[in-house]
Amino acid sequence: MDEFSFEDVSELGNGLQNEKNSNQNYQSHFVPITFEEKGNKQTMSKHTSFSLSKKSSFNGLLNFKERKLDPYKKYSTNINDYELISDIGGVDDISFLYLAKQKSTGEIIALKYTDLSLSPNFEFMQELIKTSHNCAMLRHNNILPYFLTFEENDRLWTVTLPMECGSCRSIMKNSFSEGFSESVVATILKEILKAMSYLHGKHLIHNDVQADNILIDYNGEIKMTGLRQLINLQQDGWVQSAAFLQVGDNIEWAAPEVMAQNANYCEKADIYSLGITALELAFNKTPFDNWPPLKILCSKLLYPCPAVKAPGKVFSHSFYDLVLRCVHRQPTKRPTVIELLEHPFIQRHAKGPQLIRDTVVKKLAKKL
């Protein structure tokens, strides 16, 4: 395992000019949603001032009874039939997630809203259609389902499950600044590996595995989202062995072969991203935290994955063994999802939803 050793390459690119990732400025683009009362009718305000609220609020949700939404139920396509309760957090640079209630039934749901006016071009619309289609065709306990998508007032709305605690990234930002415990990390990874096993079994590459795309609800259930960059290796009845696509905005999690942009890649790219995500969950940062993009590119193409420096936080040898196997620079030497599910770190440390409720959800509730 010579190549697997973590190597501190923080001095790499000292001569490179520090550059800011333009995607970091997206926070200013969210349009807050407000409602106005006109008689007995609730209508959407045309409020257009731009701001962002990142709070992960779920007041009173611990008192709600456990519920399962019916994927075959007919949900309303009129936004006025829903009452917004609170914001859950940002999904990406153009989408936001709200906790809501369907007025006619009192059913608690989540409404994902995308502001079409931010990028009203054909490619953008195609991406949205692709995402809705991808989510609608997938049915797995660890993948966030889309039940209905409709457009109103230049906003695209999607009815989905209420993952009240928000994403793992927002949870760490608000309550776990040093990352999660070893057992919580193992539990989250196990559930995400189940989702990845389902996707890879259908010849699909998630292509955006990271903490921001891992959601938790107040029952401790874990679901994967972020399917906008999903790649289907099965086209016209034929299964391709690899794919080619330019790297998106997930540069810190992207595998070296994806970064190279001149080589085909397969589902093993997801395995690399999972390894980086494991470090992110453990330490609330990736090995490439605050690095300029060019420095990340050079590091991934030339060197092994650098270490995450977190003095005072100790994880087991099995954790680092799992990570090192995942982030091997050679895709063929990375383990499969099935092999990772059988890895000692997952077998010894992963628990169930009760652990997430007792450690993560309760801590969030105490801060309300």
From TrEMBL:
Gene Ontology molecular functions: ATP binding; protein kinase activity; protein serine/threonine kinase activator activity
Pfam families linked? Pkinase (PF00069)
Task: Give me any GO biological process, just one.
Answer: protein export from nucleus
User: Its GO CC terms?
Assistant: serine/threonine protein kinase complex
Protein kinase domain ranges (all copies)? 83-346
- Entry's InterPro entries? Kinase-like_dom_sf, Prot_kinase_dom, STRAD_A/B-like
The UniProt similarity line reads: Belongs to the protein kinase superfamily. STE Ser/Thr protein kinase family. STE20 subfamily.
PANTHER family listed in its UniProt record: SERINE/THREONINE-PROTEIN KINASE FRAY2, SERINE_THREONINE-PROTEIN KINASE FRAY2
Name of the protein in question = Protein kinase domain-containing protein
